[in-house]
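Hi L.,

You mentioned the student needs an example of a multi-chain input paired with its predicted structure. This one should do, with 717 residues in total across all chains.
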Amino acid sequence: MAEERRFLSASGVPIALRRRQHSASCRELAVRGPRLQLRSLSAATSAVWLAAYGLFALCENSLVLSAAIFITLIGLIVYLHFVKIDQESLLVIGSLGIQVTSAYASGKESTTFIEMGQVKDVVINEAIHMQKVIYYLCILLQDPEDPQGVSEVVPLFQSSKPRLDCLIEVYKSCQEILEQRKTAPQSSEIK
Amino acid sequence: MLSSPLWWLRVTAMVLKVFFPSCCSSADSGILIGRWISEQNSAVILAVVHFPFIPVQVKQYLGEVQRVTKVSVSVLGSWSNSKQEKEESLSEFLEDLGTIFCHEPWIQISKEGDSKFWSCSILQKHSKNPQEEEIILVYYDQRKVMLSHLHPPLDTAGQGAEDASKLSAIFDTVARSQVLFMTDRYDEGPIKLTHWQSDGVEASIIVELLKQASVPASLLASNLSLHSHVFCRVLKFWPLSFLWSKLSTCEQLGHRLQHLQVISSNKKAQNQNQLMRKANIFVSLLIDVALGILLMSWLYRKNRIGHLADTLIPVADHVAEELQDLLQWLMGAPAGLKMNRALDQVLGRFFLYHIHLWISYIHLLSPFIEMILWYVGLSACLGLTVALCILSDIIALLTFHIYFLQTSIASVSYFLFLFIGTLLFTILLFLLPTTALYYLVFTLLRLLVVIVQGLIHLLVDLIDSLPLYSLILRLCRSYRLAGESLSPAPALSSQLLPFSGVRTKMCHPPWPGDSRERKPDPRDEA
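Structure written out for the whole complex:
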């Protein structure tokens, strides 16, 4: 079943959290940010072209105008393909692992998979970001040498930056699945 | 280690993982062969064997594959892909197969016609305690998983295999079963398989040709490096070794010879890291020599060497004139500062004399410059890096006088301070600004030269150490580098791009004796 709820991000932008439960040990949580707005796109384009016209008026060289068009096009493509993240999702499968996917506006998807054996815990942490203190969800990875230690911290939802209420929902869903692996010991440990 | 009865192993909510190759999703009905990993409760399906087949021949074939690949391949279950409505007789036939190839648990996957839904169930005949088992079906791209290299963490000294990543067993299984993928649909034989190569075995002519050519090429390279080793031994003696260390060209040549030795060594690379290193060095050498030959062909056209030689002498003259003007300025009242006249004149005349010597030396060499440049330019065929190092050394030699001026004033002022300073401290204090000014001016000039040389050396180091092979591989076939081959992080969390789409279904194994299949769950999403 899928349900979608609206929240706010840390910078006040509306985001949507979609939760899908595929089975008792498999959950998918997706945070979708707002699409690229037409007004911000036209504002950026007009700013670049106004500057280009200003330069053209100064130096009478029409190369400036064509350069401005190229810059706008290439800048837009680069922005859509490398910068603008539309949706970040978390797929938690008990006994297999956690898969973190970021889908860019151009359709590109970048995935990271972390095995369940390396996941120590999923926690909400505080961080100082610019002039604010924000909460973020992160996965703690197990240190192979030290059973109590943490070798790496993998932050999640870095571009949509949901607020604490949304993070708590995600946290609860993840913990339900992570708890299952504690109550059901794996067969590899019993010989 | 707990000593407990066997049936306690099946605790509640044990999840069964089935790894199914995406190339088999459109295959005809048949039986599934693969490897069952009981420690992780997962089944890795490698191929589908189609009807008709003789069970004895299938078992023989699997025995041979097991012997060659050391992977315990067995029949895991049945696959049915019926284009029409589900046939009851077919499903019963498939269940009966479970009695011929007895395997615990027997996996049955079926796909109906054009429906998006798959149904997956397991038969456990010997379970004393039938649990509610959840099945996770992981759809994987066989070719990419086979070609992926997972690099283990570097510090596996004390850990052993227990902490090794569980998924590495899956990758390992597929990678080692390459011989299974060698037979395709067009081969005549009793067994008809479907896997990623079943439409015809893929290979690359270029790769095969390169493999054949690499043997004589490496023999040649090893011969070359043997001779150059002897040459290196001779040059270790003084004073040649002193000159050797001063000139960066010789250092670069030594570096490259060392690379050549690494490549041409006859023993094969032990692990992936060494192989990548060899490949990187090889590609880097190749590109270096290619660029060097390109540079040489450009340089020797239209008498460019002659033009270069012609402009060299006037440039040196010009620099010397500028230096003389500078010294005259320092001997007067530089920037309005009042210098100690006697010391000023002494230092100024001393340095003017040296510049005069230098100019005469340059003029003496001028007829031979063109020839020297011509022969030195030939060494560019050894590589672009060598040419750049030679350029840097030429700059160093030409501006040698500035280097000399700066060190001499440093040493002069040092001795002056030490000797007379103990006797006449006050006098020296007043002489300090003069010497400091001269020192400052010459140091700034020297700094300029050092910056230019530094940039050239930076470029040379970049060409030397850029892992071009890894970069190209990353751009063209990114799945080959899944893992930590480029960064030394200890964790094994890797980009699992080959795994796409996960389906799970809540399944109940039928009671012993009852072999009816459950209807597909409407919650199941394809």
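You could point out the following to them. Chain B touches chain A through 43 residues (CB under 8 Å). Strands of chain B lie at 15-21, 30-37, 42-50, 73-82, 106-112, 118-123, 133-140, 193-194, 499-507.

Best wishes,
N.
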